[in-house]
Amino acid sequence: MREERWPLERDVLFRPDRLKYVRRVIKDEACVFCKTREMGVALESLCLYQSSHSMIILNKFPYNSGHVLVLPQRHVGEMLDLSMEEYTDLHVTLRKAVEAVTKVYSPGGLNLGMNLGAVAGAGIPAHLHYHVVPRWAGDLNFFPLVAETKTVIENLETSFERLLTYLKPALARENERTS
User: Fold this and answer.
1) Separation of alpha carbons 32 and 95, rounded Å
2) In angstroms, rounded to a whole number, what is the distance separating the alpha carbons of residues 48 and 159?
3) Is 57 helix (H, G, I), strand (E, B) or coil?
């Protein structure tokens, strides 16, 4: 028979670095995505790929290993404000991100999504972006339910290297095309 304890004892996963992000204490004047664009492909920027109008970056606070964002390079918050060329390039890049995540991680499925506007849940509503989240059977552990915490089994450096290795040939072709 299990001994009942009060108060309920739980293991705690401390992530004090998330507090400022969650509470939006860090009020950055410049758009984090625009800073990423300027830094280019690098671990420091988490940028994995840049086309003529779009880019793929790792999510700094991923829902799962391999969670990437696909976004236009231009600072724009509305889908309808994209030119047809930007829109097409964004979706070609989205397809490239899905291909990379699928080949590198072999997920059982993917969540693709975009929240347009703060009311719709966009964390950075002024710069639209897609989320590409690999999913596996049983990947939702109990943390999100009881502690608003997600356990991610791979650090950002490892995710960056795995995805960049896959995307390097496409990046080289894009650089040749725009040179």
Assistant:
1) 23
2) 10
3) strand
State yes or no: pLDDT of 177 exceeds 90.
no
| Residue 88 CB neighbour total at 10 angstroms | 13
Q: What is the DSSP letter of 112?
A: E
Tell me if residue 91 is catalytic. no
User: If you count them, how many residues does the chain have?
Assistant: 179
Q: Is the pLDDT of residue 8 over 60?
A: no
Pick the residue with more confidence: 82 or 10?
82
In angstroms, the Cα distances linking 56 to 67, 93, 160, 168 are 10, 7, 11, 12
**The pLDDT value given to residue 137:** 86
- CA of 160: how far to CAs of 21, 115, 153, 164, in Å? 21, 24, 14, 6
Spot the catalytic one: 53, 127, 129, 131.
129
Question: Mind listing the domains of the chain with CATH numbers?
Answer: 17-178 (3.30.428.10)
31-42 pLDDT per residue, tens: 999 999 999 999
Residue pair 15/21 in contact by the 8 Å Cβ criterion: no
Which of the listed ranges 9-18, 103-112, 120-129, 151-160 does the model predict with the highest average pLDDT?
Answer: 103-112
- Find where tokens 């509503």 sit: 125
Does residue 39 contact residue 31 with C-beta atoms inside 8 Å? no
